[in-house]
Amino acid sequence: MSNSPVSPLENAPAEIKLAVDLICILEDNAIDPKIVLSALDIVRHDFEKKLQPQPA
Pfam families annotated for this entry (predicted)? Predict the structure, then answer.
């Protein structure tokens, strides 16, 4: 039996893992929060379009 510590993120849902990764990247690069939010709006709109049915 291994006694290695388990990170709480190991069992976290994929969206939580991705969010934590993105936060780390943005904070490590000292991106202005206003720019982050503007960029995230663009990303959200882009991915919402991808969820819409595409014409055949």
Answer: DUF2496
Which residues, 6 or more positions from 37, have their beta carbon under 8 angstroms from its beta carbon?
A: none
Domain range list for the chain? 12-51
The Cα 43–Cα 20 span in angstroms is 16
Question: How far is residue 7 from each of residues 10, 17, 27, 40, 53, measured CA to CA in Å?
Answer: 5, 11, 21, 27, 38
Per-residue pLDDT tens digits for 12-54: 999 999 999 999 999 999 999 999 999 999 999 999 999 998 8
Token output for 33: 């929060």
